[in-house]
Amino acid sequence: MSLTYYEIAVIAFTSLVFLGLLLISVVRGRDDHRPGNYSPHVTVIVPCRGKDLTLERNLRSLVSQDYGDYRVIAVVDSLDDPAVETIRRVGLELMVSDARCEACSGKVRAIATVLERVRSEVYVFADSDAEMPPNWLRDLVAPLGDSETGLSTTFPIFYPMGGFWSHVKMAWGLVGMGLMESRITRFGWGGSLAFRSEIMGQRELEFFKSGVSDDIAITKICKAKGLKLAYVKSATPRVNSDDDFSTFIEWSNRETALSISASSKIFTYGITFYISHLFLIAMAAVLSIYISPAFVILLLPISITIARNCQRAGRRDPLFVLCNLLVLPVYTYNLVKGRLMKEIVWRGRKYRLISPDFQ
Fold first, then answer.
1. GO CC terms on record (predicted)?
2. pLDDT tens digits, one per residue of 54-74
3. Are 156 and 136 in contact (CB under 8 A)?
4. In which domain, by residue range, is 146 found?
């Protein structure tokens, strides 16, 4: 069977896309967990607003850490917040947010309240919707024993406790875990993030209070100082999720919009990556049917990615494989939608997407 020049050009281009995605799929980063004797005094800051799913379990996991010298402070906007009853039942120290900032989010204000009032060698941010393993704090703090490391972070498994879209959220979240495994795409995740107090001077604190996202601000501060970001897989928390379609789409669009506001490169890289995957799947089908079944090999990069995600999540069932395939068009939509968004709604409040650089 002879091929036209056009067909040869299409196959050549498809082969280049295949090789690029194959290289990305097989290259793996490393876990920066390093056992050691670094065990400074730690203050864990937990902003709370409303009653998260499994909130009491999540808060109890924070006071059950196998770490010696630490305190946990929950921060609320008001003592009328529904989370206060649970906070008091668990026995956490409680503060009311009162930091002065204009464009900041409620979470940033809550964290800044503790940073301004409490002195500590290391500060840790913890989301109230995350359930931490007992080794979480010990493993998360350990990399900060290296003076060249600015922050230590991890990324959660979104554990499905609802219908179909909570399973899609689990697969979607593994995109973030994949980004963490590479030093090039790594970022600080504010749901579980540790840093030494020395990087947060007055100028840094004012910058921190100027934005909507806590983790984007800390990441920018560390990168501006030339400090490394450590990823600790062994500290992975569990975020229990009962999302339906509406809550999942709102959440995924918001998270993507925040990421794009931090760096326009995320949109460029992301849209190229996911469109390339969709293109390769389409070409695998077309070329296998019209030229040779051997072109099914074009599915190898996505197959490797799905197999790795199954390993990360500890699942190999057909539903989870389907969810991983669905993430491709969903995340492409998130990127386009997020690029167009100028504001987000976060825990009942509207914020304009402003993400200045740290100078």
1. membrane
2. 999 999 999 999 998 999 999
3. no
4. 42-154+189-243
3-state secondary structure the chain: CCCCHHHHHHHHHHHHHHHHHHHHHHCCCCCCCCCCCCCCCEEEEEECCCCCCCHHHHHHHHCCCCCCCEEEEEEECCCCCCHHHHHHHHCCEEEECCCCCCCCCHHHHHHHHHHHHCCCCEEEEECCCEECCCCHHHHHHHHHHCCCEEEEECCCEEEECCCHHHHHHHHHHHHHHHHHCCCCCCCCCCCEEEEEHHHCCHHHHHHHCCCCCHHHHHHHHHHHCCCEEEECHHHCCEEEECCCHHHHHHHHHHHHHHHHHHCHHHHHHHHHHHHHHHHHHHHHHHHHHHCCHHHHHHHHHHHHHHHHHHHHHCCCCHHHHHHHHHHHHHHHHHHHHHHHCCEEEECCEEEECCCCCCC
**205 lies in some domain:** yes
Tell whether 48 and 143 lie within a shared domain.
yes
Distance of CA 241 to the CA centre of its chain: 15
Does the pLDDT value for residue 289 go beyond 70?
yes
